[in-house]
Amino acid sequence: MTLPPRLLPLLLLPLVLTTCSARDSATAEDGREQLIGLRADDLRLCAGVPNLTAQSAGGEFWTYDRTPPAAGVSAPVPVIGGSLSVSAGSSCRVTFQLVGNKVTRIGYSASSDLPMSQNSACAPVVQGCMRLVERHEVTPE
């Protein structure tokens, strides 16, 4: 049985989604190291206003919740007579611990439907900050 040529891109889509999600997960993990020492004002500048804040003896905690839209496709497959649907959904909660007005730790609580992409939904929270650090527009201390 030969597959129709237009079906091949649909079959490759899960591989592409997994690759992009793995890259975003790696970006989130890099942020966990590169953003330590970032000043509170710089964090607010690049990540925005947090969804939640809390104070404790351990410092101040800023939490960002993100649920990006699911990536996916649904297309009819005439050979099978049904449809093929591939989608990826994920969500993330990023918590920054600040002591002395500087980031000291970053924690992720994420879920993902794709393998090897546990923290991929967290990438948008840290990407803007990492770009500013890479361009030396802000400097973690």
Molecular structure report:
The chain has one domain (5-134). The chain has three helices and six strands, in the order H-H-E-E-E-E-E-E-H. The chain is globular. It has helices at residues 8-34, 40-47, 123-134, and strands at residues 52-56, 59-66, 71-77, 82-88, 90-99, 102-112. Helix 1 (8-34) crosses helix 3 and helix 2 packs across helix 3 (123-134). The chain is of the alpha+beta class and 141 residues long. The chain is 33% helix and 34% strand. A hairpin with a 2-residue loop joins strand 1 and strand 2. The strands form two sheets. It has a four-stranded antiparallel β-sheet, covered by helices on one side. Strands 3-4 form a two-stranded antiparallel ribbon.
Tally of strands: 6
Largest sheet: 4 strands, antiparallel
SS-based class:
alpha+beta
The radius of gyration computed from the alpha-carbon positions, rounded to a whole number of angstroms, is: 19 Å
**How far apart, in Å, are the first and last alpha carbons?**
61 Å
Signal peptide: 1-22
Keywords: Signal
Organism: Neoroseomonas lacus
Protein name: Lipoprotein
